[in-house]
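Budget justification aside, the reviewers requested a transparent look at the raw inputs and outputs of the sequence design task funded under Objective 1. We therefore reproduce one unedited record. The lines immediately below are the structure tokens for a 322-residue chain.
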């Protein structure tokens, strides 16, 4: 950590985190079953819930106590205004959240069948219009502990932002989802990579289905130049991989109601804990506890817990060296 990061933590100030990413309005339709071609169906309910990976991760960072600024783009419509307002309610700085005049706000249409099966259609809309202002970003990253980003906004802009952050000495936490190849020069610019088993496999060509396999896949990803890797394994928790080796962090046993935003919740808790100077393993453990609370509530942003609730939640089992 640079002296700037240390001084902000030691002064007891919340760590600053800049999140670049997507915002979607999730339109959740509860249906008895998915309609067949040509079928008209009566749904059970409809809910509009703020979501999108970027916004979810920003909210998770803020609820964990981070001081967060969001870079993204919404449309000039009611959904865009609602998403901006949702971030503001969490104390997130939306100065760099642009409103595009032409494209609608990103939308995710989510059909949830009685059996719990999900069918999702995402229309990126304004998320595809995100453009980085390099000079403004450089300034924003001064004194920030992390740039947090994903792949739901245009790849060239995300890659540009990662390079700027690396140049400016700001650590990068990347969640490469939906997964796409990462250009070779970008790998050493990434401090912490958070992937699920599918993303790990796609990026290194090795299966990551068990903790042992995830440990090997994580080492293969580190060999590309990343300092630390977390492979999340759903109900089995996560594997943390760094220069000291690999540790399996089991998740607590809880009843999953809806796993939407579990990975985003995990990532926010991880980012803030790392920014506070907590160890990698302690940060992963906090992420696991936060995600366990998230999956016990329905929806994306409404299910993301506050730090207090996470600290009062049961401790997961001890981690196991692999
Ligand atoms: P993604 O949704 O990105 O694929 P995962 O499914 O791996 O991510 O979930 C992210 C984290 O959420 C996991 O590492 C784990 O801590 C937590 N989690 C997900 N599903 C469960 C579950 N059924 N029980 C307990 N924790 C879970």
């Amino acid at each position: 950590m640079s002296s700037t990061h240390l001084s902000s933590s030691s002064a007891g100030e919340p760590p600053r985190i800049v999140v670049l990413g997507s915002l979607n309005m999730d339109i959740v339709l509860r249906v008895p079953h998915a309609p067949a071609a040509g079928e008209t169906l009566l749904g059970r309910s409809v809910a509009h819930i703020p979501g999108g990976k970027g916004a979810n991760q920003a909210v998770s960072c803020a609820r964990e106590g981070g001081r967060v600024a969001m870079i993204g783009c919404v449309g000039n419509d009611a959904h865009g205004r609602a998403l901006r307002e949702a971030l503001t309610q969490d104390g997130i700085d939306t100065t760099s959240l642009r409103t595009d005049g032409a494209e609608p706000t990103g939308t995710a249409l989510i059909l949830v069948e009685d059996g719990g099966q999900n069918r999702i259609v995402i229309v990126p809309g304004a998320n595809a219009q995100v453009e980085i202002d390099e000079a403004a970003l450089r300034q924003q990253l001064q004194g920030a502990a992390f740039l947090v980003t994903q792949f739901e906004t245009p790849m060239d802009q995300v890659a540009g932002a990662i390079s700027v952050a690396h140049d400016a000495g700001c650590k990068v936490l990347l969640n490469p989802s939906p997964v796409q190849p990462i250009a070779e020069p970008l790998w050493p610019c990434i401090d912490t990579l958070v992937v699920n088993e599918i993303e790990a496999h796609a990026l290194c060509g090795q299966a990551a289905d068990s903790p042992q396999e995830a440990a090997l896949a994580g080492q293969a990803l580190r060999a590309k130049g990343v300092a630390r890797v977390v492979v999340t394994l759903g109900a089995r928790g996560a594997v943390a991989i760094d220069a000291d080796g690999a540790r399996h962090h089991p998740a607590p046993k809880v009843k999953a109601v809806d796993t939407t935003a579990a990975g985003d919740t995990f990532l926010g808790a991880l980012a803030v804990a790392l920014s506070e100077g907590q160890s990698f393993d302690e940060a992963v453990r906090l992420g696991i506890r936060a995600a366990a609370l998230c999956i016990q509530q329905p929806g994306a942003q409404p299910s993301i817990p506050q730090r207090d609730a996470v600290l009062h939640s049961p401790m997961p089992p001890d981690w196991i060296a692999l």
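Residues 196, 232-235, 237-238, 251, 254, 256, 259, 262-263, 266, 288, 291-292, 295 surround adenosine-5'-diphosphate (CB under 6 Å). Residues 1-10 have pLDDT under 50 and may be disordered. Computational costs for records of this kind are itemized in the attached budget.
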